[in-house]
Design goal:
mainly beta; seven-stranded mixed β-sheet; four-stranded antiparallel β-sheet; 52% strand; globular
Length: 114
């Protein structure tokens, strides 16, 4: 199983980023996919989750209305579109697959700063 995140960067407050997570080694279309984040000195927190068929998604309270999770089961990729970024969104963002067991990516750094 391999999950590879990309798209992290330094961005100004109010800006946007799109993160990607490319999956391999398992049946992607059967996995519930999630994005988590962990800021320095803080616990890892759930950002967003999407069902296997993409019909259902859930978001953490701090990102509702600003972030969107979506997936492409033909490309084995899950995305996180992040808009109206704030300094408090600064964190390492992790992709997670659940197929009966949890699999994690290595993370990608997002820094929101002027």
């Amino acid at each position: 199983v391999q999950l590879v995140e990309s798209g992290g960067a330094l961005v100004q407050p109010g800006g946007s980023l799109r993160l990607s997570c490319a999956a391999s080694g398992f049946t992607f279309s059967r996995a519930v996919m999630s994005w988590f984040r962990q800021a320095l000195g803080s616990e890892r927190e759930l950002v967003a989750t999407i069902s296997t068929d993409a019909r259902n998604a859930a978001y953490g309270d701090s990102v509702k209305g600003r972030f969107t999770i979506f997936r492409d089961n033909t490309e084995n990729t899950v995305y996180l579109q992040m808009n109206s970024l704030r300094p408090e969104d600064t964190a390492v963002y992790y992709c997670k697959a659940w197929t009966g067991a949890d699999y994690w990516g290595q993370g990608t750094q997002v820094t929101v700063s002027s």
